[in-house]
Amino acid sequence: MNTATSRKIINLISITGMAFSIALAIYFFRLGFFNDPKALQSLVSQATILGPLVFILIQILQVVVPIIPGGVSLAAGVLIFGPVQGFFYNYIGIVLGSIIVFLLGRQYGKPLILSLVSEKNYNKYIGWLDDQNRFDKLFAWAIFLPIAPDDTLCLMAGLTKISLKKFIWILLLAKPASILAYSMLLVYGGNFISHFL
């Protein structure tokens, strides 16, 4: 099998996988799994053995398909599975989704990125890509902080010369802090604020 044929097969598999992911995400979205923690909890609890795997798949989808709000599924993971297991499942799903997004950005470049990210956001972060060392540092900080647009930056990181190995290490080391902070804020922030009102 020559290189051109291999590339066509890889592209076909990637496009099919992306189409399946989008279709599944839309199906889950219509059923309310991404904006209603109770619906998500019902789905996961019905699949007792596969519950964690279903939840991880949902987390991967919410990263790969950027129309889905990730905040609800982050909080739902903690509420459904408890703080330790919920954190672990959130972490696995988000890291795997981020790696997929990075590889898609690297494979298909600017046309795909502009189809998933607004031109305003693209223009906002494209300047980060000019200096690789600067990008690596900014990217690591952005992944560490819970308020950064991680999915957009992971997608755009595919346009840089950052190695997959370095990208994964940044995710593995920096992502836990933002997942923990964001999950705790979503789950317990409301209760904390209500004590002062």
TrEMBL record:
Q: Which domain of life does the protein's organism represent?
A: Bacteria
What InterPro entries is this protein classified in? TMEM64 (IPR015414), VTT_dom (IPR032816)
How does this chain sit within the bilayer?
Answer: Multi-pass membrane protein
Q: Where are the transmembrane segments?
A: 9-29, 49-81, 88-108, 138-160, 167-188
What are the protein's UniProt keywords?
Cell membrane, Membrane, Transmembrane, Transmembrane helix
Name where it's found: Cell membrane
| Pfam family of the protein (one) | VTT_dom
Q: In what residue span(s) does the VTT domain sit?
A: 68-185
Family per UniProt? Belongs to the TVP38/TMEM64 family.
Protein name (record): TVP38/TMEM64 family membrane protein
